[in-house]
Amino acid sequence: MLLNCCLCLIVLLSGLNQLVNSRHLPLDNCTINVHTQELRRYFSVVRSTVVSGDSEIEVKLLDKTLPKSIQDGQMCCFLRLVLRFYIERVFNNYASSQPQNQSCTSSLANAFVTIRKDIHKCHCTCTEETQRTIDSLHAEFIKLEISPAAQKAMGELDTVLDWLDELGHSTRK
To answer: pTM value?
Structure first.
């Protein structure tokens, strides 16, 4: 437990140099900055707990290849809706009994709120197809009871972080 507290403290302190670790993500008609390394450090503290606590191993909420199926001009909307899902459905319903996990989860949630605020400045619009894609994510989520669903989504957060990394390496406009 002391080790996890130290890890979370290191993660929090390392946020001081976040400008150096910022990645530019091209989202259709604008670009936002995301600190993907910082997000990964926070997630690394909670990852083993959320994955080991996942009792719904046969269920998959997120497909790693999903962004490839998003229409041109819709990545901004897609990412905004995914972040909204995590902020409103996942972080609000995920509960850890370990204080260091609570702190890192809170930091992840706050980072997602900040990213979503930056995306709102992009003024992206959503097509029905993109909305249906997110609706299907919500549908799978609500098939589970709320606590196991939040646990499942937290365990799949690495998929969202992979998407952010891929966007940071893409030249898609």
So the answer is: 0.84
